[in-house]
Amino acid sequence: MSRVLVIEDDEILNGGLCYNLQKRGITPFSAYTLEEAKGLLSKEAYDLIVLDVNLPDGSGFEFAQDTAALYEIPFIFLTAHNLEDEIIGGYQMGAEDYITKPFRIQITMEKIQAVLRRCGGRHEESCYSCGNLDIDFEKRIVRKSGELLELTPTEFDLLQFFCKNRRKILTKDILLENIWDSRRRFVSEHTLSLNISRLRNKIADDQFDYIKNIYGMGYRWVGAGEAGV
Which stretches are labeled DNA-binding (predicted)? Predict the structure, then answer.
């Protein structure tokens, strides 16, 4: 199920967007300020951000540049301004869409769903290949350069979660909320760090690192895009 963060200080509009998203099977998360949104982003992973350009504690444009870009999440701007230069600037900044108020809610929902389809919002993959890794999520099999890798259940769950969220920075809080041990119990922070270290040692080599530390924030799956362990 796709997860959309709505950042809008108008409570009625925010609630209306979230209500209609939920009706369409999309999980909405609500923030009324940029500070509140930053807190949510540090704890959860999202497929799309819908944000107002003008918020009580800052500019949606600056937020999109500084924060949304850091997490590599697609975004849609909402604005009461219908200024051509502003709209063009929004698209040049990388916005998937730019919606002016007032807008028709059903058309807006269609636009949001189109962006989620285009950006691959949490589609389920049965297999994934990256660098010298071949992963079968259904059979829970991992091969490295053709050789079968032996992973513990927790290590495989970690690998799968990284791969399924490979465009996102995953904080320890997010990982702790989503990873369980073989008895389906939440793991401790120490156990999590130990399992990440063991997983990295098993999948990485001189050519591919796969999991990168993001200083002060968490981890991100970089796949075969960045070399060096």
Answer: 125-223
